[in-house]
Amino acid sequence: MARFLACGDSALTVELGQGISPEINARVTALSALISEARLPGVRELVPAYCSLTVQYDPEQTSHTQLTAALTELCGHLDGPAAAAGALVELPVLYGGFCGPDLGFVAQNAGLSPDEVIGIHSKTDYLIYMLGFTPGFPYLGGMDGRIAAPRLQTPRVRIPAGSVGIAGEQTGVYPIASPGGWQIIGRTPLRLFDPQREQPFLLSAGQKVRFVPIDEAEYRRLGGSDEPC
Amino acid sequence: MLTVLKAGMMTSVQDGGRMGWQRFGVPVCGAMDPEALAIANILCGNDEAEAALELTGAGCAVRFESPNIFALSGADFSPRLNGVPVETGRAVLAKKGDILETGFAKMGFRGILAVAGGFDLPPVMGSRSTDLKGRFGGFEGRLLRDGDVLPFRDAQLWLPNLPDRRADLLRGSADAPLRVVLGPQDDSFSPHGIKTFLSGTYTVTSKSDRMGYRLEGPKIEYAKDKDGNIISDGIVMGAVQVPSGQPIVMMADRQTTGGYAKIAVVITPDLGRIAQMAAGHPLRFTAVTQEEAEELTRAWKKDLRRLRAALDEETVLW
Which residue in A8, A20, A136 is closest to B265 by CB distance? Predict the structure, then answer.
């Protein structure tokens, strides 16, 4: 079932399926947890992705051959009782206004009212398939296709940290301010990434995210910024 | 401490990399030439992964505000201490007020300037490497500028064999092909494509930086029914992505995951050789097996330890 792919002399990638699905991704999360528990000698770092896990190792302490044997054994324990569902993280979001200038377009594009878009966007629990692209950026799955929207024709130069956007069939949150072409519908006042914090990240792969609509007073109480989009 | 008098083209603080956070999407960063970092640090009596200054292309000038031992490794920047040439690959004691100047890089493109005891900069998420894109770590998360002052953490005035504490880079000929292990997605390429990759001469383009080296050369053919895209997975340093048939060697500031098929990965002991190539440099690849690559990396790490042991062995005076 699992395929072991060589990644040079200090890493290998375990492929646990081909495709983007919650089932395959749950196996990635489960294997990641099993490896951490097993404390395999020489394993330095794990990088979970949609359907694979890259295992970085110290070739002075282990080898591709030894690790493949140990990981094959662990992969045998992935199909037991369904892996416990990842924790649910609630992200408060101020939709529309200066925080979500594209909410109107997304609604118009979908033939819905802005409130209906907010209702649809905030009712789903989104699976975090993986983090990547920038520190703390969650690749989320499960958005309702009714609120899909094309990317902006001209990307914005600066999208404030915390901005919640839609691009095609995907939704996501910008952990740090960056340029981008997503349709921005709201913003969370919470900081997804703060390198100075003891736990720099709010989210991790395998968890679920739910967006909770808040009003502007609550947004300000939680420390949301005034920065325009 | 030292004061940066002239920051140069692109000088940043880098160590062995920010490990342990790739699962959250944090790039590893760190020195582009891990061997030069290790050797400069060994010369200074430091841990191999200690933070040092990475110089690029054109050099810089620094003034030692307090004495400390320093060492340069990597490219030859024709260093001069108070106007007098000093050797690259040698530990030297700088006195208070001494000015170390470096010129343009020869025989390479990047250099490491390490100081004994390292720099007293706050580690961010366990590392002193500068994440230039994320703007954190190193010195205020940015390239060094004229006037920056970097405090020493544990300056030293003496190290064993200081009068003759030298070390060259371990690697041999700069023209030898870069050794790679095929995979993780070599099956995305046709046998002809793999042959092209392993026999062609590629040139470093000007669109190369700390994130990756974009190469130009014979177009690499994908396998039938493959287009070079994959479902995103982890990317290690030295991985060779092939978008549109042209290779990109992913380097220190690479993103943690990506969606292009990777035909091969450069072996660890050869990573520093790429870092020394400027635009226009030709290069070739040759394949070794996964087992050979592990063996070569083990031997390389052993050689670094052996070098340290030799340098640290006290000469007994009778």
Answer: A8
A51 in reach of chain B (CB within 8 A): yes
Domain ranges within chain A, ordered by starting residue: 3-75, 88-221
Average pLDDT (B37-49) is 98
Q: How far is A157 from chain B (nearest CA, A)?
A: 15
Give the single-character DSSP code of B279. T
Confidence of residue B318 (pLDDT cuts 50, 70, 90): low
Which CATH code for domain A3-75?
Answer: 3.30.1360.40
Buried b (16+ CB within 10 A) or exposed e, A43-81: bebbbbbbbbbbbbbebeebbbeebbebbeebbeebeee
Domain ranges of chain B: 2-164, 178-287
d(CA B52, CA B106): 20
Which residues, given as ranges, of chain A have pLDDT below 50? none
CB contact under 8 A, A47 and B297: no
Beta strands B285-287; B178-182: pairing state: parallel
Classify domain B178-287 at the CATH class level. mainly beta
For A88-221, CATH gives 2.40.100.10
Average pLDDT over residues B160-185: 93
